[in-house]
Design goal:
Structural class: mainly alpha
Distance between the termini: 76 Å
Keywords: Membrane, Transmembrane, Transmembrane helix
Number of helices: 7
Radius of gyration: 35 Å
Order of helices and strands: HEEHHHHHEHE
Protein name: Haloacid dehalogenase superfamily, subfamily IA, variant 3 with third motif having DD or ED
Shape: rod-shaped
InterPro entries: HAD-like_sf, HAD_sf, PGP-like_dom2
Transmembrane segments: 20-39
Strand content: 5-15%
Strand order of the largest sheet: 1-4
Organism: gut metagenome
Helix content: 55-70%
Number of strands: 4
């Protein structure tokens, strides 16, 4: 900048060059800093303040479709109603969720409610896992959240 105050033919040129450098260099440094911050942030997963997502399973990630499942056996309407009442619609089914007894003990209680359909009840309960159907969005949703860096947890009785 000192050279810009020289007198002579090239004094004006030196002044313009010094002024340009005095403005250009800080602006360029600022632009490079912004670009660095932008590129650094782009590579990081942004999760904000939320780091963990806790899901219930039933009616959130999966549906319990016992009616369609039971209909898939092709039972007559009367048999369907009696087996439904003895199993899925009984208070025993809700107790089963608590898991206080062994599975066979629950099955015996279901059979006691409709002993004439023992064979069918045993088969229905044996394959009852088929009543659980994931919602269409569940897998995509879980994968997306995982890719975004969230920690995923389940808190459920399911």
């Amino acid at each position: 900048m000192v050279f810009a105050f020289k007198s002579g033919e090239d004094g004006g040129a030196w002044f313009k060059a010094s002024l340009a450098i005095a403005v250009f260099v800080p602006v360029l440094a600022y632009a490079m800093t912004l670009m660095y911050r932008f590129l650094k942030r782009k590579g990081e997963k942004k999760t904000g303040m939320i780091k963990n997502v806790i899901f219930d399973v039933g009616k959130v990630l999966v549906d319990f479709q016992w009616e369609a499942y039971l209909r898939s056996f092709g039972f007559s309407e009367e048999k369907y109603e009696k087996i439904a009442a003895a199993t899925f619609q009984s208070e025993i089914w809700n107790e089963r969720d608590r898991g206080l007894l062994k599975e066979e003990e629950y099955v015996e209680q279901f059979v006691q409610k409709a002993p004439e359909y023992e064979k069918e009840i045993r088969e229905v309960v044996r394959r009852s896992g088929e009543t659980i159907v994931p919602f269409d969005y569940a897998l995509t949703w879980v994968k997306y959240l995982k890719e975004q860096g969230y920690h995923l947890y389940i808190l459920s009785n399911y």
